Amino acid sequence: MIYEKETARKVAELLLQIKAIKLQPNDPFTWASGWKSPIYCDNRISLSFPNVRTFVRQSLVKAIDAKFGTADVIAGVATGAIAQGALVAQELGLPMVYVRPEPKKHGLQNLIEGKIDKGQSVVVVEDLISTGGSSLKAVEALREAECEVRGMVCIFTYGFDTADKNLKKAKCPIIALCDYDTLIDVAVEANYINESDVETLKLWRENPEAWGK
Asked: How many CB atoms lie within 10 A of CB 70?
């Protein structure tokens, strides 16, 4: 679910402008998972552009206020959303922690870095949701620490059925600033891609694992 349509279009426009999102239907990327993909998203690039960084931060804060209310702690998901989580927590004047994908192999072997107490309410900040695996692990880790997860906000979601179903099953509401459908609409209007590329991009999302094989 996107926060609001106007914000989604603006975020899509900004991410395309700074090349945080690249669309190459005829020259696909290879993800770490091995999937071939006509799209690549790296929202960390937004941190290097103060105007984009500010708009994203303020939009995440507005989405949290509107959908989840006041929380005790903001939790970023490592590694991509650590900085975004810190920016949001600073804006809200709240404590911030981040959740590792697995416990540290030395020292205190922490899974959650920072101070958090059982019973505290938490909003999770993600930069990107694809399959939803890392996001769900973070939610589970926080719940195992006996925290109340109010929900999750993210900058961009691909809107894969698997991720949506798993997050719904985990009873974790999610609010995205921008989604795949909005991105494609804006990309066509701004001539980043042609109308003829849209079908390719839609087919990829239907079955990304098999696409391009």
From this structure: 11
Dist. CA 29–CA 39, nearest whole Å: 7
The domains found in the chain, sorted by start residue, are 5-20+50-182 (3.40.50.2020)
Residue 2 has pLDDT above 80, yes or no: yes
Predicted confidence (pLDDT) at residue 187 exceeds the cutoff of 80: yes
Please give the model's pTM, rounded to 2 decimal places.
0.94
Q: What is the pLDDT of residues 8-60, one digit of tens each?
A: 999 999 999 999 999 999 999 999 888 899 999 999 999 999 999 999 999 99
